[in-house]
Amino acid sequence: MDGGTSFFGDLLGTIAERGRALLDRGRERRPAGEARAASVALLCERLLSGQGEASGVALAQEILAAYAGLRTGERIAFFETLATAFGPDAARLEAALAAHHAAPSGRSVAELHAASEPRRQELIRRFNLAPGATARLVAMRADLLGVLPRRRDLTEVDRDFTHLFASWFNRGFLVLRRIDWSTPANVLEKIIRYEAVHEIRDWNDLRARVDSPDRRCYAFFHPALVDEPLIFVEVALTREAPSAIAPILDTTRTPLAPESARTAVFYSISTCQTGLGGVSFGNFLIKQVVAEISREFPNLKEFVTLSPVPGFRAWVEAERADPASKVLTPDDRGALAAIPALAGSEVPDAAAREALRPVIEALAAHYFLVARSSKGKPLDPVARFHLGNGARLERINPFGDLSPRGMAQAFGLMVNYRYLTEDIEKNHEAFFDRGTIVASPQVRRLARAEEAQKPPALREAAG
């Protein structure tokens, strides 16, 4: 932590102590059990109605500390209170609507906008007055995300967190740092813990990924979350785009001289803070890392990923379970059923893999180019990420990941996405404006002939 950050942290701490002394005067004993959530809600009302900075910092600190002591059910009750009691001020909003209707003006529009903002947004802003509050608010939203699937009535509360976090964590505040062997050990430990794509087995494995001359790792940090990476990407420098992950992760390989590399491979992207889900960092990260390594290695000509396909196996299994499936042919079913290892995470032998290759390729082409969610989006989350960033689906790699996890998630399937600087914006707009999946001719040739009859909006486009 630098001196400036330390100074402001100490200053906020001093303000909080002074405010706490003010709050302690005449304080009532806090109730226990279920009533604690209601008690925290009362403190929230006091925080919103108060004007003093010292007492506001202390109240914010007390509320966050009290929240940390709540049980799961009490935390849900707290979120319920945020949803029902801290929405827009109804009286103010009604008055603003009447005033705007009577005499529309820029001033009336501004008041209407202010009146329509939920009170909880200002409440969350005031929470953030407390020292270290940003990290605690990120953790609070992680709690909220944990209950959201079964409590859709709390969606508006989550939307307010997302709205504020999008501002607090915008690109202007993010700092890109290279992770190498000289990075502090506490950060390196978090890289090991947060790695979400290819497990880092031990410190030797980590060192091979961050300290080899042909490897790079970069992470985004935020000043309010000291030594807490938000997202990081691992990069391999290679001669050509790889089709399998094992050679990339091999700790006994002979490193490539970086000046001999022609391709930068993004082989693992991991988000680190659950509470920042939905706040996009990855597109900024990839673009900045491309710029960073291009300056360091001007010999690089190609930027690709080697990406997992986490939902592919579940999709295939669902089609296999559906006797009316129009995706699987009888030959597909026979080929899949003939391989006992596919019943688990075992790896078929080389001959079986070769026999299955055309089946996996055709199914993968359908999965990426034709299959859609109920919202009309590609089924694969990794595809949505890279295609949304303007990449092109470049190549399908059956059995590119023979690890137990790779087999369990996708029958070992991996894919390459390619980032062509001159096409990124065009591809991005095609994906979001028309739902176009930009794919290479090589991928398009894998699709079966009948898929050419799909509606134009679902057809893939050449990049």
Summarize the structure.
The chain is an alpha+beta fold.
Q: What would you note in describing this structure?
A:
The protein is α+β, with helices and mostly antiparallel strands. The chain has three domains: 3-168, Malonyl-CoA decarboxylase, oligemerization domain (Butyryl-CoA Dehydrogenase, subunit A, domain 3); 172-305, Aminopeptidase (3-Layer(aba) Sandwich); 308-462, Aminopeptidase (3-Layer(aba) Sandwich), CATH 3.40.630. Helices cover 51% and strands 11% of the residues. It has helices at 3-24, 35-49, 53-68, 72-85, 90-102, 106-116, 119-127, 133-147, 155-168, 185-194, 203-210, 246-249, 282-296, 312-321, 330-337, 350-369, 381-388, 404-410, 424-434, 441-444; strands at residues 175-178, 215-221, 231-238, 263-271, 302-305, 307-308, 392-397, 414-418, 437-439, 460-462. The strands form three sheets. The chain has a five-stranded mixed sheet, sandwiched between helices. Strands 6-8-7 form a three-stranded antiparallel sheet. Helix 1 (3-24) crosses helix 3 (53-68) and helix 2 packs across helix 4 (72-85). The longest helix is centred in the first third of the chain and has 22 residues, at 3-24. The radius of gyration is 26 Å and the shape is globular.
